[in-house]
Design a protein that fits this description.
Chain A: InterPro entries: ET-Flavoprotein_bsu_CS, ETF_a/b_N, ETF_b, ETF_beta_N, Rossmann-like_a/b/a_fold. Chain A: This is Electron transfer flavoprotein subunit beta. The complex is a heterodimer of chains A (254) and B (481). Chain A is an alpha/beta fold and 254 residues long. Chain A contains 6 helices and 11 strands. In chain A, the strands form 2 sheets. In chain A, strands 9-8-7-10-6-1-4-5-11 form a 9-stranded mixed sheet, sandwiched between helices. By secondary structure, chain B is of the alpha+beta class. Chain B has 17 helices and 19 strands. In chain B, helix 10 crosses helix 12, helix 10 packs antiparallel against helix 15 and helix 15 runs antiparallel to helix 16. The radius of gyration of chain B is 23 Å and the shape is globular. Classes of the chains: A alpha/beta (254), B alpha+beta (481). Chains A and B meet through helix 5 of A and helix 5, strand 7 and helix 13 of B.
Chain lengths: 254, 481
Amino acid sequence: MAALRVLVGVKRVIDFAVKVRVAPGGAGVQSQGVKHGLNPFCEIALEEAVRLREAGAAQEVIVVSLGTKASQETLRTALAMGADRAVLAEVAEGVTAGPKEVATALAGLVGRLQPQLVILGKQAIDDDCNQTGQLLAAMLDWPQGTFASRVELDSGSVRVQREVDGGLETLRLRLPAVLTADLRLNEPRYATLPNIMKAKKKPLEVIPAADLGVPGGSPRLKVLQVQEPPPRAGGEKVENVQDLLGKLRQSGRI
Amino acid sequence: MALRRVLALGAALGRRSCCSKPSLPPDFVEALRAVAGAPNVSTAAAVREQHGHDESMHPCAPPDVVVWPQAVGQVQELAALCHRCRVPMVPFGTGTGLEGGVNAVQGGVCFDLSRMDGITELSLEDFSVTVEPGVTRKALNKHLRGTGLWFPVDPGADASLCGMAATGASGTNAVRYGTMRPNVLNLRVVLPDGRLLHTAGPGRQPRKRAAGYDLTSLFVGSEGTLGFLTQATLRLHPLPEATAVTVASFPSVGAAVACTVQVLQAAVPVARIEFLDEVMADACGRFSGKGLPVAATLLLELHGSRHSLAEQQQQMEEIMRQNGGSGLAWAEGLEEREQLWSMRHNAWYAALALRPGCQGYSTDVCVPISRLPDVVVETKQDLQASGLTGPMVGHVGDGNFHCILVFNSQDPEEAQRVHAFTERLGRRALAAGGTCTGEHGVGLGKRALLLEELGQEGLDTLRSIKAALDPHNLMNPGKVL
């Protein structure tokens, strides 16, 4: 088996099925008591890493996250999906971290754990930033293959097929490299009960985020306001096509 | 106020006759609005039409008004109101039934329960969860992601779980995991007069019980004729550790079905075993773009631990070879397996694609496994003799198969041949000791066959139960009985 170590970054986000509401004050969304889960793109990244290990192309999958204590649950789910061990870069309750902070923590962990490949989800479904992978690659000065829809490991390099605006682009990157996973890369497995049981015994290390160089204080990106879209106005019935055209012209639509 | 006036009026209104459709009492809709809130009550023609039909061929029969209760208390108040005024009530989940179960043939109020969509009381240790009507089977399984548990009953549509309880639904996994009936532990029912009933007692979900008549089982499959299923407590199962799927073609329908019988007799704990006749296999292959040999086909799935799976695979291969089966490559990866199954799940659309512009009707008989080969072969002969397009697909592990009849409903002669064929098929199944409906329910179209199946005593007993719970025949009148 190749001695390749893969680092997968995951984020705990509000579950995609939840109907999100704006928090009072408009500075964010209601997240207390709301169902959370593993970010879907992170799940895909993790699945890819586990498949690489199962195929013998990688030796170890380490899953990491930057978050509060609650992220431990998310890391246990990742362990149940097949990661070998987990690390939590812990921040205090109420602290939010943006892409710059996460990339800093990941860079610190890369320094400690020495992976040859880092796979992240392309973006988180709460902020949709799509920045962390790119920032991390820049910090480490590693090549990056983002929006990956197909990954093939060779010795010393990785072939990545990317989904870009014009279609599909294939790159070959020298290892070590950073990849970010897109939707069509794979279909993540469901954790089974035996694996959930086993995951409870897998190692989960907690490190204060500050130890990895993540600065305290507010994140670089500040959310100024969140608001719901305007309520839908009632429709209007018209008598004939002339009226319809008239109304459309009036409202400036044609 | 308005409510009191209507309640006073209701007392004087008297019984509605079976075949008439009198208009609603004055101020009745206002009274509904007072309970549910004006935005949750609609008399708009488009909304009523949408709620007057399901996925079956039965003509649309819109209700007089549609309400969307937000909580069980509202369902109770609305039901009590309808009961006092003797107005028919029709429960509505996702409208994906196949027997006209939601068609409001006597008008009345359609209770669209989809806004009640809570998932509560998930217990990983007790393997149970409680859901309201707005929760569909796929939504529940997505919610369960990461817990290691799943709910295996999978009819074709992404149906409401409470709706599935109401029709006693089944799916491809029934051969190993059971249909809805064994997987419903408790139901919170609103009776026709508005009283609340918990069929296994409030807040209880024992895995087995011997306490009194089995009310849960009574309401499962009641098709909205005994009360509103406003919440169901379901039995969950652990996800299999390993799964493998294979497709095999056989030289004849008889060989494929005989193979199924042998697999079951060998006690291989097969999770899914689905049959496609050569017309269906061809249609599915073409529709999915993957191509399948034009032959009687079995699509089957095995669940187990890594070790037990290998053993099951070996047993399966032997039995399939003995019956002339070919093409036995196993798919174990998630994407491959999903591709194979989506070919089967799209059977309805693949069948319709055989004759674009036509409508489809699915038959649904279920016979003892020992009689399955004969019944299937006879049915195919009948199809050919009647000149009908009716690809066959089936959960052969349960003895249940569907002919998807694709025909031009505007052509009265062809429609007549279809009707005659389905009657013969129903009777053929009954003669073989089976049932006229394995999973779709009786609904509007199979009431006559129900009498033949149960006999007069059976039907009279059903009528007594109906009369005891719904003496004014307000719950989904015109269905089942």
